[in-house]
Amino acid sequence: MAYYWFKAFHIFGVVAWFAGLFYLARLFIYHVEADMETEPAQSILKKQYSIMEKRLYTIITTPAMVLTVAMAVGLLSVMPDYLHQGWMHAKLGFVGLLLIYHFYCGRLIKQLENGECNWNSKTLRFFNEGPTLLLVVIVMLVIFKSQFPTSATTWLIVALTVLFLATIQLYARKRRLDKEREVAEAAATTEQALQS
After folding, report:
1. 117 φ, ψ to 5°?
2. If phi over 0 gives left and psi between -120 and 50 gives alpha, with beta otherwise, what is residue 170?
3. What pLDDT score was predicted for residue 150?
4. For burial by CB atoms within 10 Å, which of 11, 43, 66, 98 has the most?
5. Is 73 exposed, middle or buried (0-12, 13-18, 19+ CB in 10 A)?
6. Which residue stretches of the chain are H helix?
């Protein structure tokens, strides 16, 4: 019975953890893009994003990560045979990468707050895709275990995932270019009005 409790709360933790990571990375993008705004909007937005990032990280994302890891330890304590299986070693390796990503997000929060982050919104958009890729691989490992599929269907799903991620990147680029064009047009209109 303990196995099912650990598993249920592990799943709750994973869902909340990933939700937090997905939203946190989006906040980083918005935070960096606030530099394109004029004052006082720029300062107001950056301050608000800093507050949102810190609260999300400390109140939701980190506790969810702790719950996920604690319940995973519980699961492995009642099912120690999993520790002798290759798929679990691979899963734990990817979870290790996810933990590194999580703590790096904490570092980015501090850098953004202090104005020391050198990443642009395009780089952060790619950074935002990290948890998605890790989620896909981890779930596939859990579902298929040692019979990880390598059929054409698997490669089709991988291709669709990559296409989905590329579409998001292209849409973000279009939005950025539209915003830049809009700002340039507004500046040109203002300049024409001043010359008249």
Report:
1. -80, 125
2. alpha
3. 67
4. 98
5. exposed
6. 2-33, 41-55, 62-78, 86-113, 121-128, 130-144, 152-195
Are 55 and 27 in contact, with CB atoms under 8 Å apart?
no
Please give the C-alpha separations between residue 7 and each of 82, 86, 87, in angstroms, as whole numbers: 14, 20, 17
Q: What whole-number distance in Å separates Cα of residue 114 and Cα of residue 21?
A: 21
117: left (phi over 0), alpha (psi -120 to 50) or beta: beta
What are the CA-CA distances from residue 113 to residues 31, 43, 46, 53, 54 (Å)? Answer: 9, 11, 8, 9, 10
CA distance 8 to 11: 5
- Report the C-alpha gap between 196 and 194 in whole angstroms: 5
- pTM of the predicted structure, to 2 decimals: 0.76
DSSP 157-181: HHHHHHHHHHHHHHHHHHHHHHHHH
Triad 64, 68, 74: Cα angle to 5°: 145
What's the one-letter identity of residue 121?
S
Confidence of residue 107 (pLDDT cuts 50, 70, 90): very high
pLDDT in tens, 117-153: 888 888 888 888 889 888 988 988 888 887 766 677 7
